[in-house]
Design brief:
Blueprint lengths: L2 H28 L28 H12 L2 E6 L2 E6 L2 H8 L13 H6 L13 H14 L2 H6 L1 H16 L10 E2 H18 L13 H16 L5 H4 L11 H29 L9 H7 L16 H33 L1 H14 L15 H13 L5 E5 L4 E3 L2 E3 L4 E5 H4 L46 H18 E4 L23 E6 L3 H5 L2
Parallel strand pairs: 2-7
Antiparallel strand pairs: 1-2, 3-9, 4-7, 5-6, 8-9
Helix pairs in contact: 7-8, 8-13, 9-11, 11-13, 13-15, 13-17
Length: 525
């Protein structure tokens, strides 16, 4: 298609979108379906407030700045969609308690369609029978405490290998600095892939990778980026055919890379089970799914809409994506905050020295006694939640904070802004872990404290929260206990956020490590 034809098509589709949107608005007005919540001025024809969301800042920060001007609830028009943005605990409580079912739906987005097996991945599936079945299956059979306990040896093995690799890291190849962000990502990827498919992409944080590993890692990076970009057709569905920016094509290519690898893994697991029919066949999460009667191979499955293989691959993919990004990004933010607050780092090391000592490695069983370390994790998740914004869509009319929310309205819950509310948090922009040992000591992840919901809340809260916390706390404890850390020339860490669905750090974290325990403890790992 030449430029002239492309321009004409754009104009035609834009006019059509404008007319349909105008008619829809008049119809809603007659039916009394207006939101009735004020919002920023300056909405443009067709695109609405989209131009206000442009720029290189994360959308959570942009929406947070709007909340400073317009309050904790305001409306936007994003293309053809009415959107309500929320950022106070009172409003969020309404969403996750009274209206939890009415607001349990996910908006239909390009990411779910083209990257997540047509929304078969439970995190992106619309609310309905399929989502209820797969979410129940994940909670009870894949991420339950019992199942994770049976795979705990994998966590211990990977953490040991990670710490050992840092001790022997060839810093002379990296200007005496350890690229810790990359090491975290490699560790998290090895851990999640091993839990799911008994695979390991490299022997260490800096080992050579197979072509399959390289292919999968590159696809993972692409997916992380694509999940955070704006796709025009998500706002104006009629623009899908134009694929402005080429993001849809990129998603399709990235999906193919994932699917080739996941299909190979699934076939390998199927062959292994056939060759050893006497085995229970539950070495990993993929085997657990193959063993489930809920995903019966004969087609008698209770889950509607997708084949068994699609469900398994979609579930494996979303666990790898969210697990790898959530663990690595959170660890990167924690260490960055500690380096910029050396007194906090020193206190954490003193706590470990006091409760564990320097003659053995800290174990998961020690974490319950490390209250300050737990507070560091909570405070980091308050400032940098793994899900900074949560999209929902109303499936029926409801009221939030006394405001009418018509069915079809999209909601954006700004957790990043919510957890920095000065009404609820003293010095909300400051890194102060001690707040979770004093004024906020009783606040936990699972209790109904809606001013602190880093893993969301309600029926669509993160099912991997328990595993993620165990991993992050143990790795952090080992790092703080085992190494003195500092930046080159003792410069402060750049804390700017990058673009992406999980609020990644804009610049990679590189630092100098020096062991603080006897060398034999590292060598025996």
């Amino acid at each position: 298609m030449d430029f002239s034809s492309l321009f004409q098509a754009f104009v035609f589709v834009s006019l059509l979108s404008f007319l349909v949107n105008h008619i829809s608005k008049r119809k809603n007005s007659k039916n009394g379906a207006n939101i009735g919540v004020p919002g920023p001025s300056g909405a443009l024809p067709i695109i609405g407030h989209l131009h206000l969301l442009r720029g290189q800042a994360p959308v959570a920060r942009i929406l947070g700045a709007m909340a400073d001007k317009h309050g904790p609830i305001y409306s936007l028009r994003i293309g053809q969609h009415q959107v309500m943005a929320l950022s106070s605990w009172e409003l969020v409580k309404d969403c996750f308690t009274t209206n939890d079912r009415a607001l349990a739906n996910r908006p239909s987005l390009a990411m779910g369609k083209y990257l997540a097996y047509d929304s078969a991945s439970f995190a992106l599936s619309p609310y309905g029978q399929y989502w209820r079945e797969i979410r129940k299956f994940v909670d009870l059979h894949l991420l339950s405490t019992h199942k994770l306990t049976s795979l705990q040896y994998v966590l211990v093995s990977e953490v040991d290998s990670f710490i050992n690799s840092l001790f022997y890291f060839p810093t002379h190849d990296h200007g005496d600095q350890v690229p810790l962000s990359e090491c975290f990502e490699q560790f998290a990827l090895n851990l999640t892939v091993r839990l799911i498919a008994t695979k390991r992409f490299s022997a260490s944080a800096y080992g050579e990778e197979t072509s399959e590993a390289c292919r999968f890692r590159n696809a993972l990076k692409d997916a992380s980026y694509l999940s955070g970009v704006f796709v025009w057709s998500d706002a104006i569905s009629w623009l899908k055919c134009l694929d402005i920016g080429g993001h849809l094509s990129s998603m399709k290519r990235t999906f193919k890379e994932f699917d080739v690898v996941l299909t190979n893994w699934l076939e390998e697991h199927g062959r292994a089970r056939s060759d050893d029919s006497s085995s229970t066949g539950e070495r990993d999460i993929m085997d657990m799914m193959l063993s489930s009667t809920l995903l019966a191979e004969d087609g008698a499955m209770t889950m509607p809409g997708y084949s068994r293989d699609t469900i398994i691959k979609a579930t494996a993919l979303i666990l790898i994506l969210t697990g790898t990004q959530g663990i690595s990004v959170t660890l990167t933010w924690i260490i960055s905050l500690l380096l910029n607050n050396p007194s906090v780092l020193k206190t954490a090391q003193e706590e470990l020295d006091s409760h564990v000592g320097k003659e053995r490695w800290v174990q998961e069983s020690d974490i319950n006694y490390l209250k300050f370390l737990q507070a560091i994790v909570k405070e980091t998740l308050r400032l940098y939640p793994p899900g900074p914004v949560t999209p929902r869509e109303a499936t029926e009319d409801c009221y939030v904070g006394g405001h009418h929310v018509p069915a079809g309205t999209r909601l954006i819950i700004n957790t990043w802004k919510l957890q920095r509310d000065p009404r609820m948090w003293s010095d909300p922009l400051e890194f102060r872990p001690e707040r979770f040992m004093t004024t906020n000591a009783d606040m936990s992840y699972r209790d109904q404290y809606f001013e602190f919901i880093p893993f969301s809340s309600g029926r669509r809260s993160c099912p991997g929260m328990g595993l993620g916390l165990v991993v992050v706390q143990l790795v952090l404890a080992r790092l703080v206990q085992g190494f003195d850390m500092k930046t080159k020339d003792d410069l402060p860490v750049d804390m700017r956020e990058g673009l992406g669905i999980g609020l990644p750090k804009l610049t990679s974290l590189n630092l100098l490590l020096s062991p603080r325990l006897p060398s034999h403890l590292y060598e025996c790992l």
